[in-house]
Amino acid sequence: MKRHALHAGLAALTLIAGLLTAAPPAAAATTTFPFAATADSYVSSSSPNANFNGTNSLAVGATPTRISYLQFNVTRLVDPVSTARLRLHVQNTANAPSPNGGTAQQVGTGWSESTLTYANRPASVGGPLASLATVHANTWYELDVTDAVTGNGLVAFSLSSANPDGAFYDSRESGTYAPMLVITTGPPQTGDNVLLNGGDISACSTTGATQTAQILAREPGTVMAGGDLTDSGTAQQLADCYDPTWGQFKSRTKPILGNHDYISSATAKPTFDYFGPVLPPGKGYYSFDKAGWHIVVLNTNCSRIGGCQAGSPQEKWLRADLAAHPNRCTLAQYYHPLFSSGGRESTAVRPLFQALYDAGAEIVINGHNHQYERFAPQNPSGVAEPDRGIREFVVGTGGRPLQASFPEPAANSQVKNGTTFGVLKLTLSTNAYSWQFLPVAGKTFTDSGMGTCH
After folding, report:
1. 21-30, pLDDT tens digit by residue?
2. In the chain, what is the straight-line distance between the N-terminal and C-terminal CA atoms, in Å?
3. pTM of this prediction?
4. Which end of the chain is more exposed for a tag (fewer CB within 10 A), N or C?
């Protein structure tokens, strides 16, 4: 063995031994602070100079454009902010519900609810923070606005919706149902370094998605909804089949698009509409950072987005994104696998795999085959490379009918199962990761292990 390889192997073994034997640190205390709004009102494009504070309600919607604004004075915080959630209550009236509850965004502070108008409304700060889908009357909802709350001081938010069928919320004058900003300080909550992966989720005629949703309910972490979220991508299927199962965890979900999400619409519009700003319109590819890792979500419905070949818009975006985020550890998730023993591999995604390999990525997670399969690290040509290759997981076990057979045994395949619904749990740490396949209740198959970053 070469000297540098020996040292790398010893370092990896030392890290893994430490992860297995180190005593867990004592849990630090967290503190929750509820803050009532110090100002709130809404504005309307139909009356740009009018003030609506006297209506004692908060409205959002389009035609005309109505935007609500809320301001809070955060005080008494000593420890770092762990989470911040904006709590809103839909009014108990016939016109209050909406199929789109609105999108929260940070805005400038210092405005007065008694003088606020559409014409003098505060400017937005940064991008969207969180969104609500369908909201019902006389019901509380929460939006995660942690990214906008850094400590003590004034903070303000807008809530807007592009849906003509707008929503109405109780304002601060309503007492019991007044808006609240609930802040938790202290260490990050458990799950901040966890990804929960599963694709091929919602089949309206089966109970698989209901079973895997029970895993998500008990496991904190970011939900990676790995494609084929419904049978054919209709708004009705999203409402009837996805929303009651995996849709319960929408506020902590990062969606990936599969081919079934495009069946009812050549642009997958219902799915884009359902998830809102978290799924970039028309593209479906994006990235984010978590626990020191860079996470890339790609759209491998190649014909729908200008191709996946070298030089395509997505491939160029991917290379630029990877160059702009030279993290030690990188993970990518997209629907169609390059390697599979299930007979549904796609060579069209090889240029994307190549770009990830060139950037030193560690992991790729796919779906499409309704099975679980884990590969040893390999290069884009399928040659094993323990020190530099990418480890691929196929996790099409989210709920659609499973495929028990593996008709095309692939090189470097290490573990296969086609009879168990479940979720892949990835725990990310500095320069390392661990995985565990979590089966649904009543099943015993599992798979687990650890790895280090390149």
Report:
1. 333 344 445 6
2. 18
3. 0.63
4. N
